[in-house]
């Protein structure tokens, strides 16, 4: 069964339509990148899937469950993780509190050990307010917080944005590791090289709709499409 | 001595002073001041109920007087009609206030910001007028009086609120228990959820927190605190009146909480203490003393937005920075013992 199926999804911000019929698929264990220039509707697509943006048409289903009828606080329990743009930390809460916030009961020691093995900096800063961490550390915490909830799909919104270059490769490595563990990933990314390196499949967006679908290899071989929709060259 | 240790010592000294009030205070001032301190302790619970909502969940309620009034009548009516003792009356007052909060909260916490503040005022006004018009039961504006029940009896030993010291220590015990429970809650996973909802309710929902349920629980618990305050006040005055359900009583509690420091456990106690002592000292010589209370509130909001407790905390941080670190750490003041920071098994 398709992990995430989006069909003709439409949404407005106020009266302005921002999504004009987005359709995409994420299969189990697959990493899919959603690319496009600023303001084409990538973040809005993620927000509409989660119900944070009011959907005006179309459907979004996750493992066969129509997300229309699912309250936002139940998405995590369904296995749908989300790391928003800007990391979505609770800056006044400690690292430990941020990590365990969504859990009911005692954290799974194996998962916690795994998270600390991947992100040893977090273990060193457990009692520190999350707002005092660097951008890269906050991104690690956001990923770790998602992982402790045992998701089967993670939606990542620009995970390498605003992070110092030496930490970008670590974040990229961790996303790759997440995918290798069979967790599906829907990645919104401005960094084309990062997206092409991580993704199995790529969607290009323009003006609130999907305009192109390709494998990374096919897109690399098609510089005119890259230039037309992203305004850059590899 | 580190800033944390100074705060701990200050807290122990403060607790010691509260315990010594009935013994030491009459040596220096009129015993009347023992009752004033007891009154501060009682009212501080109403401010604490505002604090639980405003400081920990981010909801500004102008309706806590409703639950104060329900707690007051729960205690008074249970003594009058059922012959309840102090503890029975207190329990009825708290449970009645929590039930009322459970009913009002089921609607109120669906709203936030000014809509929430307005609906809490509306609920408060509806019940205020209902209580005023149900004179045969509530006594309306005149209220109802009752004789003081016993607090404890064993053989020939009988402790009654008629004794000023027994009354003071009974109030201190109940108030301390309420603050202890409040502290346990805000340090528990539920308290962390309260703060996450306060910081960003959408983010909180996306990590799996049921924002409505979290706010609802806080509202009911805050109702219980306000109810405990009302029940204690009924026993303190041997009296219950619908006039205490009016929203200006809620407004005063909001001011006490803000001046003391919303978001800190004991802040509202200090805010209530400062403003009630101020009232007692100034109101006898100047009837327009509320102008000064307003000025104090404005100054606190402008120059110490986290209230007296926040100002104390900032002062302690300054002291901490000026002192050479005893044990060098990368993050002084934030480190906790390793046992506190372990996760999982």
From TrEMBL, chain A:
Coiled coil: none annotated. It comes from the Bacteria. Keywords: Amino-acid transport, ATP-binding, Nucleotide-binding, Transport. GO terms for molecular function: ATP binding. Residues 4-232 form the ABC transporter domain. SMART domains: AAA. SUPFAM superfamilies: P-loop containing nucleoside triphosphate hydrolases. Belongs to the ABC transporter superfamily. PANTHER family: HIGH-AFFINITY BRANCHED-CHAIN AMINO ACID TRANSPORT ATP-BINDING PROTEIN LIVF. This is Branched-chain amino acid transport system ATP-binding protein.
Automatic annotation (TrEMBL), chain B:
Coiled coil: none annotated. It is found in: Cell membrane. Residues 323-345 are annotated as: Disordered. It comes from Filomicrobium insigne. Keywords: Cell membrane, Membrane, Transmembrane, Transmembrane helix. PANTHER family: ABC TRANSPORTER ATP-BINDING PROTEIN, HIGH-AFFINITY BRANCHED-CHAIN AMINO ACID TRANSPORT SYSTEM PERMEASE. It is a multi-pass membrane protein. It comes from the Bacteria. The chain crosses the membrane at residues 12-34, 40-59, 66-84, 90-109, 116-134, 166-186, 207-233, 253-277, 289-308. InterPro entries: ABC_transp_permease, LivM-like. This is Amino acid/amide ABC transporter membrane protein 2, HAAT family (TC 3.A.1.4.-).
